[in-house]
Amino acid sequence: MGRPTGRSDLPAAPSPASPQDIRNVVLVGPGGAGKTALFDALVAARVVGHRPGDDEHVRTTTLTVASIETDGLTLNLLDTPGYPDFVGELRAGLRAADAAVFVVSGADEIDRPVALLWRECAAVGMPRAVAVTHLDQPRADFAATVETCRRTFGDARATHWPVLDGGAVTGVVGLLTAAAGEHEDARAALIESVIEESEDATLLDRYLEGEDLDTDALRADLRTAIAQGSFFPILPVSPPTGAGVEELLGLITQAFPNPTVHPLPAVTTPAGGAITGVTCDPDAPLVAEVVRTTSDPYVGRLSLVRVFSGTLRVDETVHVSGHLGDFVGHEVEGHPAHDDDERVGPLAAPFCDTHRPRGTAIAGEIALVSKLTRAETSDTLSSTERPAVVAPWVLPEPQLPVAIRAASKSDEDKLGGALQRLVAEDVTMRMEHSSETDQVVLWTMGQAHVDSVIEQLAERYGVTVTAEPYRTALRETFIQKCSVQGRHVKQSGGHGQYAVCSLEIEPLPRGSGFEFVDKVVGGAVPRQFIPSVEKGARLQLEKGVLTGHPVVDVRVTLVDGKAHSVDSSDVAFQTAAAMALKEAANETTVALLEPIDRVSVTTADEYLGAVMSDLRGRRGHVVGTEPGEDPGWTVVNAEVPQSELSRYPIDLRSVSHGTGSFVREPLRHDLLPADKAKELLKG
């Protein structure tokens, strides 16, 4: 989704006659497996003149889509980032697609993080094929990769075998063809798997009796099992030589399901009521979802839309619903709840860095819509007669905070608008402005995500920012009971200012907040000024008494005071109370409190010890462990100071070898250790 290049050599946009003529396929896999190279090879096989990027090692950070024609069908091919920081783009691609090609390197290990990606696909019921790349590298071993895939992914078998010549993959052999004789063991294993998936109960007996089974019937059973997501074919591919590309395209068109087969997401009314009968039918009421938004300097806002039902038409008025906060349980920055009617702008078929205009997009299609000013990522487009809301895909919670500051005054003037736009486009980023620390904080998925955001600010909006250490918001509290007098007496002509109040200050248990007690007797402080003392105390406690952090868990008791019949006032007693609190504050009476988070870390069992040791090194208290949802995984529950978690997403990825994830929530404030408090007090 980028600048239209004005290329005239591209064929016209595909125009499928029905949803049965569409295939929506997403490429998924770990970073460095060769997804983008395979994406370019698949596109180039059907679009003459398509030129892949020069550097196959450039990290993909965004979702890329190309709509092409193959074998009389429209193939919408989506390339997703493999780096975990951009899992939001991956999940958007999974929502838009109906099947997946899982790309793995034949020269690298299929480790736990790769298995986690596979689970991402399995969680949404995605039929999958496995494409094995990098078979021309010295460490590559296709047979070993096939066995590892079978152990890791389940019922996965090779359907083709690579042909190697001088270390290069020059072709592939189908295991159900006569040419597969030299790979008899792999062929037999494939046939046995197909028989297990077949609905023909006689196949197994006939096979065991030595009967030559009909190859066409086996292929039909194989295609059915693939479409149902119960069998996962493994194909060798080589983007540099093109080997396996045609075979993969053939599998996509013949075995992957069309949009009428893949289950639709849940759909409700904007108020949460049920909507039934939503089908992948171009003649049904419109239900579509914005899976990605971006801003283009040439055409304005671009929305990548998956049409689930009905037909999207240029200049048609649609209802735009956004209720993301209702599904995640809290308001999401840049995504306030809204219901609007808006006219659909120009439609286009996406094609990498350009797009081709079209007039409609039917159920099952993926299209680009220009200038939808009221629609954000995850919003629903529906008919005005039947407004609808599509339940959004599962959103990861950003856990890495980074504080940024504008490099200049001109950058500062543009920063707010630029950040609002980026946060609205990226549902995996959250922004907050902390008045306590005076920092603009972006909550992100990881360091690569941070780098991408800073780069976008510079390139798209001309805003230069610098990152600075993230500061946690501390609290002050009194740790000793003390008595103090606040005296505010001034005379400067006319009415003066006179207020004296005697206060007792004592600590309260954690979480108690602030209490004010009136014990004045004999009218030493007139009744009308007692609320003024309380107000002055509250205001000063909010400002802090020693380091500028708010004071919590304290009881202030007014025990005595003095007033003047003329010079006393509300302001005078507020000032006297504030002076008393500041007078009472010193390093022996006041301590600092730091925020503590409740943290739940999920990790593979083999890295459990390293994760627990790392948590203890962060001054964390491990409360306990429990089994994860899947065998081989454990959840560690701990209480950890918030300041120790500022880089935890990056460090956890290291100690858990990419398998760890965590969630956290504020728990309480506890005393900051004396050595750390001393450093702050000195500063």
UniProtKB/TrEMBL annotation:
GO terms for biological process: ribosome disassembly. It comes from the Bacteria. SMART domains: EFG_C, EFG_IV. Keywords: Elongation factor, GTP-binding, Nucleotide-binding, Protein biosynthesis. GO terms for molecular function: GTP binding; GTPase activity; translation elongation factor activity. Residues 471-589 form the Translation elongation factor EFG/EF2 domain. Residues 1-21 are annotated as: Disordered. InterPro entries: EFG_II (IPR041095), EFG_III/V (IPR035647), EFG_IV (IPR047872), EFG_V (IPR035649), EFG_V-like (IPR000640), P-loop_NTPase (IPR027417), Ribosomal_Su5_D2-typ_SF (IPR020568), Ribsml_uS5_D2-typ_fold_subgr (IPR014721). It holds the Pfam family EFG_IV. Residues 591-680 form the Elongation factor EFG domain. NCBIfam families: PRK12740.1-1, PRK12740.1-5, small_GTP. This is Elongation factor G. The lineage of its organism: Bacteria, Bacillati, Actinomycetota, Actinomycetes, Micrococcales.
